[in-house]
Task: structure prediction
Amino acid sequence: MQTVLTQPFSDQKPGTSGLRKQVTTFQQPHYLQNFVQAIFDSLEGYQGQTLVVGGDGRYYNREAIQIILKMAAANGFGRILVGQGGILSTPAVSGIIRKYQAFGGIILSASHNPGGPDGDFGIKYNTSNGGPAPEKVTSAIFERSKVIDEYKILEASDVDLDRIGPSTLGNTRVEVVDSVTDYAALMESLFDFDQIQQFLTRGDFRICIDPLHAVTGPYATAIFERRLNAPAGTVQNGIPLEDFGGGHPDPNLVYAKDLVKIMFGDNAPDFGAASDGDGDRNMILGRNFFVTPSDSLAILAANATLVPGYRQGLAGIARSMPTSQAPDRVAEKLGIDCYETPTGWKFFGNLLDAGKITLCGEESFGTGSNHVREKDGLWAVLFWLNILAVRQQSVETIVKEHWATYGRNVYSRHDYEGVDSDRAHDLITTLRGQLSTLPGQTFGAYTVGYSDDFSYTDPVDGSVASQQGVRIGFQDGSRIVFRLSGTGTQGATLRVYLESYEADSSKHDQDPQVALGDLIQLADSLAQITAKTGRTTPTVIT
Ligand code: VG1
Ligand code: CO
Result:
């Protein structure tokens, strides 16, 4: 065992989901090691315990895993479970931590950020409930990283990550496990695989699944093509590549180009789905039809009792603050609670652990349930397929019937990526300065009902998260939310979330960009987006 002297880096503050930096930053001597030691130094009681390690297969995954294995062994973990080839999706890690009662897990991923030598890398610690470390843990890790002066690592040869089975590193047992088996079994315990299989093999319902050359490739191929017998070729872009084939592994209408072309082209399949880099996000498409993630959560909640794993009904649901209020309407009808949390999955953990909620989700293509403590992309796809197999209707019909019942929460998110950081912060600071004077003011058809900077008090442990996004709510129920991304690595990304409510079903087919036109203009004039960022149009509209 070696104790290596080091010096702290000042920039190891975890964001919305772990520490994300450019690969070149992580490749600096001691950079990854410092952060990993800071994680271990912030934990207590892991001696002899189990750690789960895996990543999304992006560039630097294997190197990082070898370092982490040797450090975990040197720091006294008793057993390490690592995915074959270093591959484990984020929801798979969460499931494995829970199934094997591990102490925690380390996930290597920058999720939807591009990969490759010039792309991004990331690292995240998950606790024994399988979920992302809560803020008190991530803050402790950051504090430790600022003063760290040494780390422990074993001098040993690399573990063969491709061969399934046990080996040893010092006194630590290392088990290379199949990346898919436990996850697939968990899915089979929740959904009616026989019914889905019949549905997919009947010949008149075609699906297309696109992992975008990221981690869900092996999971999707095993589950859809091998277990559920969907035709070969159902899964496209299914081989995980270190640079995701040069693409941007973000399942939205802009970055999932191949799938969008197929689903909006001639003779399109009936159902399409894509996942992100680490497999926790999903995009759901019908033939010529896009399902807004907020609607997807609402629809899963409204139809949950059609699915075996949720037949008993839902304890409650939760959505992140910027997510549309469509799920709230379902909760109201079901007579269950709907919690509103800050952006990021770490805030759902306590609610799930306390049994207050069963389903939760975010507008950013993330949906999940109490089966793990992460959002889960393929789980959402299977949930949809199970509902479709039961209801025997098209995706579009299901969504439109939902709107007819609950009204439509018309929704869009506008992202301005790579904005100068000072300008972006100035924009938010200026907005904050207006918050006390906005209520009561009228802009065209909109009168401000409330305006605040969202603050959340966790109902389970009382912890408070403040400054989680500027909200401006209007008297007719419309909202505009502004916040800065906590996952980017270059400059700042401004996210503007727009929502209005339409009860009249004759207007439900309107393009959201048209229906939200006035609000979009209002967002620009309230926040001075063009003036302050120099941008006239968003980089990505979803
Ligand atoms: C984004 C999303 C957020 C999500 C987070 C991690 O964060 O908005 O909803 O939880 O990414 O998702 P931000 O701070 O950039 O808005 V993932 O798939 O990276 O683990
Ligand atoms: Co992700």
